[in-house]
UniProtKB/TrEMBL annotation:
<dbReference type="Pfam" id="PF13738">
    <property type="entry name" value="Pyr_redox_3"/>
</dbReference>
<keyword id="KW-0560">Oxidoreductase</keyword>
<protein>
    <submittedName>
        <fullName>FAD-binding protein</fullName>
    </submittedName>
</protein>
<dbReference type="InterPro" id="IPR050982">
    <property type="entry name" value="Auxin_biosynth/cation_transpt"/>
</dbReference>
<dbReference type="InterPro" id="IPR036188">
    <property type="entry name" value="FAD/NAD-bd_sf"/>
</dbReference>
<dbReference type="GO" id="GO:0004497">
    <property type="term" value="F:monooxygenase activity"/>
</dbReference>
<dbReference type="GO" id="GO:0050660">
    <property type="term" value="F:flavin adenine dinucleotide binding"/>
</dbReference>
C-alpha cells in the first residue's frame, strides 16, 4: 500500500494525518522540533490567536473550553494531544534536509536517516524563513536586532528605545508587549491603519460571520478570490485584527511610517526622522523557504505552484498550509482541514491509479 511522508507536525501536518488515518492510508509525520506543534512552541509569551477557541479545533476534537482566545502554548498542547488521540506516527527531532525522486517514488533524507514514500506532503508552514530587509546589515553593531520569530518577551531586550519594524498584527502585538518596559516606536507602511472598534453586538456578530465566510468564499476558483489571492501573495498584509489605535496610544507607542534607509548606523523612516534606538525588532514576516528542495523542474523561488495542493509537475508531491493555497484561510486552522481533504483525495486517486489533480492541471 502507498506510504505518505508528511513533513511538519503543526496544524497542517496533523490535519493531513487525520485524513490519512480516516481513509486507512499509512503515513509517518516528521517534525524538526522536539515537540509536536511546530512553530506554536516558539511564539512570544503573550501571543494569542485571533480566532476564538470555538473555531480553533481540528476535525474530531474540539478545542478545550477555557480562554476565549488561546495562547500559542495552549495551541501547541492541543496539537500534541490531537496527535496522541489518533495514535499518529509522529517522529520529532527529525530535520528533513532533502527530497529526491526515483521514478514514481520519493526518498526523504534527514541526515543519515532515509524514508521511502510514494507521496510527500510539505506541511512546513505558510512561510517559515525570517524575512529581514537588506538594510539591516547597515545598522550600527551597537543596535541589538532580532526577528519577531525569535522574540519571546521584553527581558530579551537591553534597556533603551525599541523600533518595531512592521505594522502588521505581529508588530502591533509585540509593540504593546514591550511598551510597559521600553519606549517603543512602531513603524510600517500603514501605521495605525486598524479597523474601528465595533460596539454593536449585532454588528460584531455580522462582522465575525463575514470574516469566517471569507475563508470559504474567497478561493482560486472565484473572481473575487483570485483578486484577493494576488494581493495576498504580493505581500499586502491584511488589516490589524485585535489592536486598536487607542490601545497603542494608551500604551505610549509612537507610530511612524516605514523604514527606508540607514543614516550613520541608525534607522531612518520615510518622513525623514532618524531613530536613535537600542534595539530593532523586525516584524517583517517570513518567506516560503523551499530552496532546500532539489527536484528536477521544480521552481523553488517562491511558493510552490500547485493545484489544490498537488504540486504541478511533481506527481505525489503536495503542499499544505501555504498562504492562500486554495482559499483565503488555507494557512490557518479554519481553512487547512478543507485543503487537507483535497490533498488526501488526490493521494487516494493515485493509490487507485486514477488521474491526479496535478496531472490534470498540467494538461489544461
Amino acid at each position: 500500500m502507498n506510504r505518505t511522508i508528511v513533513i511538519g507536525a503543526g496544524q497542517a501536518g496533523l490535519a493531513a494525518g487525520h485524513q490519512l488515518t480516516r481513509h486507512g492510508l499509512p503515513f509517518t509525520i516528521l517534525e524538526a522540533d522536539h515537540r509536536v506543534g511546530g512553530s506554536w512552541n516558539h511564539r512570544w509569551d503573550t501571543m494569542r490567536l485571533f480566532t476564538p477557541a470555538t473555531k480553533d479545533g481540528l476535525p474530531g476534537v474540539p478545542f478545550p473550553r477555557g480562554d476565549r482566545f488561546p495562547t500559542g502554548a495552549q495551541m501547541a498542547a492541543y496539537l500534541a494531544g490531537y496527535a496522541d488521540r489518533f495514535g499518529m506516527d509522529v517522529r520529532t527531532g527529525i530535520h528533513v534536509d532533502g527530497i529526491f525522486r526515483d521514478g514514481e517514488r520519493y526518498t526523504v533524507t534527514a541526515g543519515s536517516d532515509r524514508f521511502e514514500a510514494d507521496n510527500v506532503i510539505l506541511a512546513t508552514g505558510a512561510e517559515r524563513v525570517p524575512n529581514v530587509p537588506s538594510l539591516a546589515a547597515d545598522l550600527s553593531p551597537a543596535i541589538a536586532q532580532l526577528h519577531s520569530g525569535a522574540y519571546r518577551n521584553p527581558s530579551q531586550l537591553p534597556p533603551g528605545a525599541v523600533l518595531v519594524v512592521g505594522a502588521g498584527n505581529s508588530g502591533a502585538d509585540i509593540a504593546l508587549d514591550l511598551a510597559p518596559t521600553h519606549p517603543v516606536v512602531l513603524a510600517g507602511r500603514h501605521p495605525g491603519h486598524i479597523p474601528p472598534r465595533i460596539e454593536s453586538p449585532v454588528m460584531r456578530v455580522g462582522f465575525r460571520f463575514l470574516a469566517f465566510a471569507w475563508t470559504y468564499i474567497l478561493t482560486e476558483d472565484t473572481r473575487p478570490g483570485r483578486a484577493s489571492r494576488e494581493k495576498v501573495l504580493s505581500g499586502h498584509s491584511g488589516p490589524l485584527i485585535r489592536v486598536k489605535p487607542q490601545d497603542l496610544d494608551a500604551a505610549g507607542v509612537r507610530r511612524a511610517p516605514r523604514v527606508t534607509g540607514v543614516v550613520q548606523g541608525l534607522p531612518q523612516t520615510e518622513d525623514g526622522d532618524i531613530h536613535d534606538v537600542a534595539t530593532v525588532v523586525w516584524a517583517t514576516g517570513f518567506r516560503p523557504g523551499y530552496e532546500w528542495l532539489s527536484l528536477p523542474g521544480l521552481d523553488t523561488s517562491g511558493g510552490l505552484e500547485n493545484h489544490r495542493g498537488a504540486v504541478v509537475g511533481q506527481p505525489g508531491l503536495y503542499v499544505l498550509g501555504q498562504l492562500f493555497q486554495y482559499r483565503f484561510g488555507s494557512h490557518n486552522l479554519v481553512g487547512v482541514p478543507h485543503d487537507a481533504e483535497m490533498v488526501v483525495a488526490d493521494i487516494r486517486r493515485r493509490a487507485g491509479r486514477g488521474v491526479s489533480v496535478a496531472g490534470a492541471a498540467r494538461s489544461r
